[in-house]
Amino acid sequence: MVNYGGDEVCALVIDIGFSSLRAGYAGDDTPKAIIPTHYGYTPATPDADVAMGDGTDGGEASNKSKYANIYIGQNGPSIWRPGMEIGNPITDGLISDFNPIPPLIRHALQDVMRVEANEHPILVTEPTWNTPANRERMAEIMFEEFQVPAFYIANTGVLNAFAAGKGSALVIDIGQTVASVTPVVDGFVLRKGLHQATLLYSARSSKHSPGLSHSPLPRFIHGLSKGLLTNATNYRGPIELWPHQLIASKITNPSNPNQPKTLPSLITESLRACDPELRQVLMGNVVLTGGGSLFTGLLDRLNAEMARTFPHAKIHAPGNPIERRYGGWLGGSILASLGTFHQLWISKEEWQEHGKAIVGQRCK
């Protein structure tokens, strides 16, 4: 049996989000592999195999799947192919389709990082509202498909607090599709205070314009928004960004990303759900993280909003955009590199002995 009690086990950390999958070595300050989570695919016919590969590298493998072909990597979904559609395994922050997850992970580890999963313990991040079924399925993929020697799944709320150097914090995480507020006390999530909301752009794209999910347009809009959008200091109405009907109908004002729930209302609801004696600790340790928190002016706007309701709140927002964009991964990198953490790994032997039940028992 492999001993994971030492200080160095050369663990890998994987953080899967709607925009990208991040992978790297525990102890590093940035991920080695950052690949798009979007992928191209053509539906499978009965008894068909799936061919997987980057759009340019052409590495292929075969497995039974609902996809006839799946195209992943930086160029995979960007090159037009007859009958190809664009997919994403993440819905409202959770993995809703596990079929493309193994190909995405395999591409990040083998093709980009040039490492074998069966030679490294792997820590995978999860959103605070993840389901037990999803956690167990991820463990099954790691142990059964990748044959990892050890596995752990960790909460991004706690990891973002660790990345900011805090054991207790109110973590405000703004991703590409979901914003969440998570109270963390002494390294544990207060689930009664967890509040999240789907961002307005994500909701409109998927519900009101379903055709967008099958085209490269969402990626184009995402790139455009990073370069053009800013956050108003005072919200008075919609901001006209572009005269063209196509763009104007798909991009919305980021000042109200969680309509009808605003970010301040999520924070207020979260704090009110916590015990009064804990609120002061949380308000003194507010952590702002996530790629969506990098919009120009958002931090100033949030400070102004918080000052009205919680004048003693102190917001910690790293000036380095890498730390905010990849806070969940960075927290996992810190956690998996600690010698005191290694007793928590689920070993392959424990998985074979206890099965899925060990995931809920070990990963709290």
Automatic annotation (TrEMBL):
Coiled-coil ranges from the UniProt annotation: none
Bilayer-crossing regions: none
Pfam families hit by this protein: Actin
Family (UniProt): Belongs to the actin family.
PANTHER family xrefs: ACTIN
Protein name: Actin
Organism: Candolleomyces aberdarensis
